[in-house]
Amino acid sequence: AQKITQTQPGMFVQEKEAVTLDCTYDTSDQSYGLFWYKQPSSGEMIFLIYQGSYDEQNATEGRYSLNFQKARKSANLVISASQLGDSAMYFCAMRELNRGGNQFYFGTGTSLTVIP
Amino acid sequence: GAGVSQSPSNKVTEKGKDVELRCDPISGHTALYWYRQSLGQGLEFLIYFQGNSAPDKSGLPSDRFSAERTGGSVSTLTIQRTQQEDSAVYLCASSSPRLAGPTYNEQFFGPGTRLTVL
Fold it and tell me: What percent of chain A has pLDDT over 90?
């Protein structure tokens, strides 16, 4: 089974609107971390936001927030007030911590296009 | 401080040749990862190193791929007898051994090496 599933290969959003990028994960571990990365056309991977499995509050970083629903195993990224510079690929990732592991699992990504 | 660096940034090679890709992680980071990203695709895990432990090689696609990490720092990914399907961007990332803090296990990525096999 896929560890990370991103079901939206492409999304469009009007500038200044909010957009939600979906991510579901699969793990039997109790302790894990969830990440979102942005990859612009230039290719670099930019860390956006982190949510720990024991964090009770949803993570927020500026215009980014993570809608963490543990029972549903979802970790959707919400971008508020979209800007043209938000156009990029977005990857959801998970790290399972119980096994002492460092392996990160990445989804296949969502391509976001912000329309002026 | 300096981020993760990779060299070369671009590599064009002929089918059948061997290539070496280099990664310099952030100083003090004990974990180092290699990923492959084919055009328009997600990240494919290749291998990771954690301190002095045996590396996890479970993601290497074939025995033509190998990697080593010398002195717990610099890593080299070697692809022998390159094939056209090896063409991709190879990304290296490192992460801190810290076990606390909001981003304690964030990965820091290098700019990647774009490999083209003709």
Answer: 74
Residue B36 has pLDDT above 90, yes or no: yes
Give the three-state DSSP class for B110.
coil
Give the residue from B25, B104, B28 showing the smallest Cα distance to B67: B25
For residue A36, what are the contacts with CB-CB under 8 A and spacing of at least 6?
A21, A23, A47, A48, A49, A64, A66, A75, A77, A90, A91, A92, A93
Residue B1 has what pLDDT?
55
Give me the phi and psi of A82, to 5 degrees please: -55, 145
Give chain B's mean pLDDT.
89
Partner-chain residue, chosen from B48, B106, B109, that has the shortest CB–CB distance to A44: B109
C-alpha–C-alpha distance, residues B112 and B109, integer Å: 8
Please answer yes or no on whether A43 and B93 come within 8 Å at the CB atom. Answer: no
Distances (CA, A) of B70 to A7, B25, B51, B73, B90: 39, 12, 11, 6, 19
Say which residues have a Cβ less than 8 Å from residue A101's Cβ, sequence separation at least 6: A95, B56
B42 and A35 in contact by Cβ < 8 A?
A: no
Is residue B47 less than 8 Å (CB to CB) from chain A?
no
pLDDT at residue number A86: 98
Residues of A in contact with B108 (CB under 8 A): 47
> Are A103 and B45 an interchain contact pair (Cβ–Cβ within 8 Å)?
yes
| Whole-number pLDDT of residue B105 | 65
Q: Which two tokens stand for residue B39?
A: 């055009």
